[in-house]
Each structure stands twice: as C-alpha cells, then as structure tokens.
Design goal:
Oligomer: single chain
Distance between the termini: 57 Å
Shape: globular
Number of strands: 33
Number of helices: 20
Structural class: alpha/beta
Strand order of the largest sheet: 16-13-17-18-25-24-23-20-21
C-alpha cells in the first residue's frame, strides 16, 4: 500500500526530467491563445442540436478570441466517417468541418476535442456498439449515470474494439481536417469506473490472464468481501491496465505526428494532479489544461508552477456549471483572464456559447482579450523573472498534519501561504515543482529557495540544496522540512541538519508541562509568540510580538544563531528557539520552527505576511529585481524575454462579490526596477495608455503611475 510521501517521488521525473527526455515546450501560440471551449455534453449539443458555427465564430471575432476548442465527440459523435453513433439531429452535417470553414476565414485556430476514455451515450454502448462497453461484473454491462442533460451515459473499456475505433477517430481528424492542435480529455485509466474499478470484458479477462500467468480478475458482490490475496490481484490488474492506456497513448502520438507536427494538449485537471501523473503521459503531451482555477491566488500559483517547469497551460476561466445558457460573469472573469496571462498562461473560457445570445456580458471577456491581442509580443515567450522560489508541496506523512476548529497545518497550506505572503507583499515569487531540486542549473537561477514544510527530500535533492547554498543561494525552511523519510517515517534529526543547524528537542519536565498548558481547546498553541532573541542577562527588546502557530520544538546547534525565541504571552518568557540563522559557504539559511505560512494562508494577518517576507529578503541577501509600493490588493509579476521586461499589475480585492461588480482603482503606485549590470534603459512604456513619470538614480529605475484600474503593465526595454 502506498504511503503519502511516495507521491513525492513521481514528480521528479514528471516535471523536470533530464534534458532531452522531455520534449521542448509547446509552440509559441499556445501561450498567446485566447480560447473558447465548446464541449458536446451540454447545450447547444444536448439535449437537442442547436449549434451554429457561423454565429459562434462571429461572436469569437467580436470578443477577440483566436482559438476554438471544438468537440468531435460528446454523448455522440459530431463528425462523419467514424465508428461511433452520431448525434440524433446531425444528419449529414459535420460540425468540425463547419467550424473550420467559419473559423479559418477569420484567422481563428481550431483545436478538436477527442474524448479519451470518456463515457458515451447509453444507447451507443448498449445498442449500437455494445462491444465498446466496460463490464462492471461478469456477464454484466457498463456503469450508467445521467451526467448532463439528455440521454444517460455508459462507461467504456480500452481492451475492447473501442480502442481501434478511437485510434481511427484520431487519425481521421488529424489527417482529414485543417486543424492546429489536438485536445484530449484526461489520460486516466478507469475513467468514470465505479467501485473497485474492474472490467470483466473478454479483452480484460484474456489479456490479464496472459500477463499474470493464469490469474483471474476477482469478483465479489461486496467490496468488503475481497480477500487480501484478491486485493493484491486487483492491484496487479490496475497496473496492467494502466500499461494498456500507455500503449494507446504511444499509438496516438505516433499517428498524429506522422500526419502533422501540431501540439497535443490534455486535461490534467489541476496542479494537485501533477504529482500523481505517469511521466510517460507527460512526455507524450505538449501542453496541458487546468480544469479548475479556484481562487485568483491559486490561479497565479498554478500557472506559475507550470511556467517554472517550462510548460504551456490553459486554465479555465469560469467553471463548468449547471447553467450553460447563461454567462453570469463580471469583473471576476476579466481578472481571471488578466491573472492567467500575467503569470504566463493562456485563458480558456468555459461554456462560452451563451455569449452568442448574450452580447451584454461579452465585454468582461472582450476587453481583456483585446488587450492581450494588441500586445501579444509582451506575452509570447515571456517567463517569470526568477527571484524567490516557493516549492509547491502537497503530500502528508501519517500524523504530520495538524487541524483545529478554524485552521490547519500541512504542506499544501504552508506552500500556498508562503507563495501568498510573497505575492501580496510584492516580493517577486515563482511557485516551483519539487523536481526543480533535482536540477542544480535550474535551481541556481533563483536567489532564495523557500521550503515551507516540505517533509521529505531525497538524498540527491539534499545534496543539491547544500551545493546551492554553498554557492550563494539563500534558503528559508520551516516546520517539518526534511524531518520525514521516504515511507513517511519521522526521523530523529532533520535531514538538512548540516544547513539548518537545529535538531528536534524532546521537552521534559517543566518545559513539557508549559507546552501542554499553552494549548487551546480549538487546536494549536495559545498565547505563545515569536520575539527577537536577547542574550542571557540582557533585556529582551519590547518589539511587536509575532503570533505563533503549530511548531517543532528544536534546539540550536553550533553554527546556528537564535534570532527569535518562542515566548509566553505572560512575562514574555523564552522557552524555545523560534528562528535560527546559519551560514554555509556563500549562502544564508533561516529555519522557522513554526508553520506560520499555514496560519497566514488562513488568516491573511499582515503582521505574519511582513514577517515571512522579511525572512525571504534576509536569506536572499540581494536586491529584488523590482519593488512595488502599493496595497496588497495590487498583485505584481515581473516577466522577461531577452532585453525586455514586462511588469504586470493586477488589481483584485479577494472578494468574489466585489470583483463581480466593482473594483476600486489603486492610486499613486511606485515601481522601482533594478537595471541589469552593463545595460541602460532604452524605453519605458505602458500596455494600457496612461500618464506616468520615470527617473533613474544609479542602477535603480523609478516609475510612478497615478492610477491603476483593473490591469496595467509596464514594459522596459534595456540595451
């Protein structure tokens, strides 16, 4: 049985495999696509066919979209010449051909959707092509559910004639239509299969029997009745079935690339799934889509993560909701688009067909799309300027997560909180995959590495981090970073002990009683704080206290200097080290005993955010590439391409209702950018026309904007 931390190991080869083993990033247009998503599971394809390609493309043109992702399959096929049941209303129509004809005249790219292992209409898998169906029990049929409007759906299996029909569909689309890319659903085995995720079709039973030297796929009516040995057989079947899917994927890439050199894009759903993905799927695709954007903060983090890995990404704008004929959007859609583009992604509008009949709300997409269209050269090929790298962590060793009535502490909350603290405080920040730690050359681009409660680090990553610090990199590590082993076991010492210069303490006696006493019934420490350290006999500085959250009791080792103590609220009595600083080679290291990033992520206390940013800036020991003087509601991200820098400024309040209706402008914004050594400023401009003032003092360029509305960007050309 897998333990949670084993998920960490897969991402090493998933995102940043050695040079040459993962294909180059997608074509440049992927990053500047402005996409309409047109699926065939909802109106205008179900329950009746109401699709009008000319009306859609005309709407896209008016809204400045340049790419349409159009379905070739939903409940039914929407094109001719395939071995799938066509839509009952289709007749001789071919909706992909109609879309291409309308789109190409207006310069719009067409990316067909190929449903991949997705459910099909119930009549198709039980009447027209019953041989495609998954068999959920010996002699049985597929799993049935309603899904969206219209006819019910049934599940399919790759080990049936469905596989050949699917591959023929792919070849037909790529060979016979003028397309610019292909979008697949998710490359996930057992897609929509229920319960134990088993199939008893002849292909599965015969294939598994041969692969396993005679084993049969177990069957029990109740899941609780399977024996331990049968469960092992089920796991073996699952591994075998995944290999069948990988074989299909290989065939798909071979077929497509034999006809056209176009990008292959697929649905990875959200950043959380990156750690679970089979690296062979990743290597076969050229870009991916996030189906869920969540908050603007998580959108920025997820897009940043993809771009740090050198990948193209299309995050949904809006969601796949229950009202496809309505577009209840406002400033939220507009800011989702700008946020996506500002961090290097390309927006894809979920369920946009409603705009055909609703011109009133088109402006919330049309305006940002018009800005992106006019300034494509300021987005294509740009990447985040590297400064602070927050490692995106997720897995939990057993017993490591802490929860209470209000807030929680775990790696996901901590890494998101660290990213948020930097972003809201205008510290140039990138969310990076753990696999970045496998590549010293990529890691060396960043001034400071932030490990916010990353429990397990492989030996190679430990060695790379040590080398990174010795060569001058800054390190901030917190809470249980490196305190767990590969199978989730808690270690006696931090694996990074040589850098952190701390070790776990084991409170006993009066100290143990104190720690027990200062706990709250709602979870977590109570009336404990961080305070600057004072040497014995010296008066403690009466500075503002920093709230304490879940913490690791530690002791400082030789070479580690205590900067902050954990103190009690009554009397400010120091009881344990809270922040320990150390040096290694040319680099600086700061260890924070408390998971304050998790607390900041939940509470957004400005005091906590300022404190976390102070740690980052101290560890970096180098000036940031830019500084922004503005409220936290103005988000900044600096990008670069050659000698051109573009600083994106995005205004958001964090209040969904407010964003949908009203967004107050930000006044008197000051920007300061460090001029790279050996260069001079050639030109300063804004993407949206507005007055501004600029002056230069030495290597610092100062730009002042009297007002920023929803979005602005400042471009600086150096020579």
């Amino acid at each position: 049985m897998k333990l949670p931390l084993q998920r960490f190991l897969s991402i090493a080869c998933l995102i940043a495999a050695p040079a040459g083993s993962v294909r180059a990033a997608d074509p440049a247009w992927i990053q500047t696509a402005r996409v309409f998503l047109v699926d065939a599971y909802q109106p205008p394809f179900a329950p009746a066919l109401e699709y009008d390609a000319e009306a859609l493309v005309q709407t896209m043109t008016e809204m400045h979209a340049n790419t349409v992702r159009i379905a070739t399959m939903g409940k039914y096929a929407t094109i001719q010449g395939v071995r799938f049941s066509t839509h009952p209303d289709l007749g001789k129509r071919d909706l992909l051909a109609e879309t291409i004809a309308a789109a190409k005249r207006r310069g719009i790219r067409v990316v067909p959707y190929i449903s991949t292992g997705h459910k099909l209409a119930w009549s198709m898998v039980t009447r027209d092509y019953p041989e495609y169906a998954q068999r959920t029990r010996p002699g049985g049929g597929p799993s049935r559910d309603h899904m969206y409007v219209g006819e019910d759906h049934g599940t399919v299996c790759w080990n049936t004639p469905y596989r050949k029909a699917y591959l023929d569909l792919v070849e037909h689309v790529v060979r016979d239509y003028d397309i610019d890319g292909l979008y697949f659903d998710t490359w996930r085995a057992f897609y929509f299969w229920p319960d134990q995720k088993l199939c008893y079709c002849e292909g599965c039973r015969d294939g598994f029997r041969q692969a396993s030297r005679g084993k049969e796929i177990p069957w029990r009516e109740k899941a609780s009745d399977y024996t331990a040995q049968e469960r092992e057989t089920i796991e073996e079947y699952h591994r075998w079935y995944k290999e069948q899917l990988i074989a299909v994927l290989g065939d798909v890439r071979r077929i497509v690339k034999s006809h056209k050199d176009i990008p292959l894009i697929y649905n990875i759903n959200d950043p959380h799934r990156l750690a679970e993905e089979d690296p062979r799927i990743f290597q076969a695709m050229d870009a991916f889509l996030y189906e869920r954007g969540h908050s603007l903060l998580e959108r920025a983090e997820g897009v940043s993560l993809a771009r740090a890995a050198g990948l193209g990404v299309w995050p949904y704008v809006g969601v796949y909701n229950n009202w496809p004929r309505v577009v209840p959007n406002g400033l939220d859609y507009q800011q989702e688009i700008f946020a996506t583009a500002a961090f290097g992604g390309a927006p894809i509008i979920a369920q946009p067909y409603g705009y055909v009949a609703d011109p009133e709300n088109r402006r919330w997409v049309g305006f940002p799309f018009s800005v992106l269209q006019e300034h494509e050269r300021d987005f294509a090929g740009f990447e985040n300027v590297p400064y602070a790298a927050v490692v995106y962590a997720e897995g939990n060793p057993p017993g490591q997560a802490q929860t209470g009535w209000f807030w929680k502490t775990d790696p996901r909350a901590a890494s998101l909180g660290a990213f948020a603290a930097c972003l809201y405080g205008h510290v140039q920040v990138s969310s990076v995959p753990e696999s970045l730690l496998d590549h010293p050359d990529k890691l060396a681009r960043y001034r400071v590495l932030y490990l916010a409660n990353v429990p397990y680090l492989t030996p190679q990553r430990l060695a790379n981090i040590q080398s990174y610090v010795e060569r001058g990199g800054g390190l901030v590590a917190s809470y249980a970073t490196s305190l767990y082993g590969p199978t989730g076991e808690r270690l006696e010492r931090f694996a990074l002990e040589d850098l952190l210069r701390v070790r776990p303490a084991h409170p006993e006696g009066a100290l143990a009683d104190t720690l027990t006493s200062y706990r709250c019934m709602s979870g977590g420490p109570n009336d404990l704080y961080l305070q600057p350290h004072a040497e014995p006999g010296a008066a403690a500085p009466r500075t503002r206290l920093i709230p304490l959250w879940h913490f690791e009791p530690i002791e400082a080792l030789e070479g580690g200097a205590v900067q902050m103590d954990i103190v009690t609220g009554d009397g400010r009595k120091p009881i344990l080290p809270g922040v320990v600083a150390a040096r290694r080679g040319k680099g600086r290291v700061l260890y924070l005993a408390s998971s304050l990033e998790s607390l900041y992520g939940s509470t957004r206390q400005s005091l906590l955010g300022a404190f976390l940013r102070q740690l980052v800036e101290e560890a970096a020991a180098a000036p940031a590439p830019c500084r922004v003087e503005a409220p936290p509601s103005l988000i900044a991200n600096l990008t670069q391409n050659g000698n051109r820098r573009v600083l994106h400024l995005l205004n958001w309040t964090g209040d969904a209702e407010n964003e949908a209706n009203y967004l107050p402008s930000v006044e008197n914004v000051a920007l300061r950018m460090t001029v790279p050594d050996g260069t001079k400023v050639r030109r300063v401009s804004t993407l949206l026309k507005t007055p501004f003032r600029q002056k230069q003092s030495g290597q610092e360029l100062e730009i002042r904007l009297p007002r920023v509305e929803a979005y602005q960007a400042v471009a600086v050309d150096f020579e």
